[in-house]
């Protein structure tokens, strides 16, 4: 199936966005970004695809399990639940490890993995599967990680 047909034929349905916080209190500190961190792309998207399980679990049950797992992993990966901020004295970006959380939203589609074609190349349809950040969004108020 041609990619243009996939984009037109399949629809992505987005669930409500929720903030997921660590399930326990975490270390509160500030991490200065390294020189490499400061010159790297600000937004990096990774897509993971999983085949549908044969279980009778609903999308909501999968979402709940993912949310619980994310709450647990954010205890160890506490910096991901923080926010970027500009250090007034040095003028450098840093991460305020404040435990404010990450965003999570379920997305479903009736597209089949094989319908998406070569996933090693740019694929406009996949953009629908990735959390979109507005150009006007204040990054100091935005989560560092978004899961969809």
Supply the number of helical segments.
4
Structural class comes to alpha+beta
End-to-end C-alpha gap: 25 Å
Strand-residue fraction?
Answer: 15-25%
Give the biggest beta sheet.
3 strands, mixed
| CATH top level assignment | Alpha Beta
General form:
globular
In short:
This protein is an alpha+beta fold and 148 residues long.
Written account of the structure:
- By secondary structure, the chain is α+β, with helices and mostly antiparallel strands.
- The protein has a single domain (3-147), classed as Chloramphenicol acetyltransferase-like domain (Chloramphenicol Acetyltransferase).
- Helix content is 23%, strand content 18%.
- The chain is built from 4 helices and 8 strands, in the order H-E-E-E-H-H-E-E-E-E-H-E.
- The protein has helices at 3-9, 35-39, 59-76, 124-127, and strands at 12-14, 18-20, 29-32, 83-86, 93-97, 102-104, 107-109, 146-147.
- A 3-stranded mixed β-sheet has the order 2-6-8, with helices on one face. A 3-stranded antiparallel β-sheet has the order 3-5-4, with no helix packed on it. Strands 1-7 form a two-stranded antiparallel ribbon.
- Strand 4 and strand 5 form a beta hairpin.
- The two termini are 25 Å apart.
- Belongs to the plant acyltransferase family.
- InterPro entries: CAT-like_dom_sf, Plant_acyltransferase.
- GO terms for molecular function: acyltransferase activity.
- Keywords: Acyltransferase, Transferase.
